[in-house]
Design goal:
By secondary structure, the chain is mainly α. 93% of the residues lie in helices and 0% in strands. It is built from 4 helices and no strands. It has helices spanning 2-49, 53-78, 84-113, 116-170. The chain is elongated. It starts with a helix and ends with a helix. The model has no long low-confidence stretch (mean pLDDT 86).
Length: 171
């Protein structure tokens, strides 16, 4: 009975590690990256909406800081990847983030030049489309890791149920 209990505790420990050391940190990392990316997008809009050079400069500084925060977050997330499916989603996210940054590098100079029509068209068109891909990738990564946590929790419940039955049978 003691060996059985130790075996079941090991199974519980393994599944709880999946949840606490990977799935939930991955969900949190994806949520933080998404929050920073959304703030980045909001600062782009703010850049387009102001004609004040000082405020535009402040927006550009915020955008640069948020870009670094997203990049740092992507680095932290990469360390948590545990499956080929997650790696494929992450690689797609990296490509889409890079494409979004390429559009952003075009958008800000147009906005600063005062060509509001061209800036708004780019922001509402190509930049929005590029950002929507980034958002979709981050949500897919969050969902994948939420499912991994749910699956691990289900396996924990199954271990508990099987252990309860075995203990009743053995006693």
């Amino acid at each position: 009975l003691g060996l059985f209990a130790l075996n079941r505790l090991a199974a519980v420990g393994a599944e709880s590690n999946v949840i606490s050391e990977n799935a939930l940190p991955s969900v949190e990392a994806a949520a933080k990256i998404l929050s920073d990316a959304l703030d980045h997008r909001v600062n782009e809009a703010g850049h387009l909406l102001t004609t004040n050079d000082e405020l535009r400069t402040r927006r550009e500084e915020n955008i640069a800081r948020l870009r670094r925060e997203v990049e740092d977050g992507l680095g932290r997330f990469a360390a948590l990847i545990t499956s080929a499916e997650e790696q494929a989603l992450f690689d797609r996210l990296r490509r889409n983030w890079s494409a979004y940054q390429t559009v952003n590098a075009t958008l800000l100079p147009i906005s600063r030049s005062g060509d509001a029509v061209a800036a708004e068209a780019l922001y509402s068109g190509e930049a929005r489309d590029a950002f929507d891909k980034v958002r979709a990738d981050l949500l897919a990564l969050k969902d994948l890791n939420s499912k991994a946590a749910d699956d691990a929790a289900d396996r924990l419940e199954a271990v508990e149920a099987a252990a309860n039955v075995a203990i009743i049978v053995l006693i």
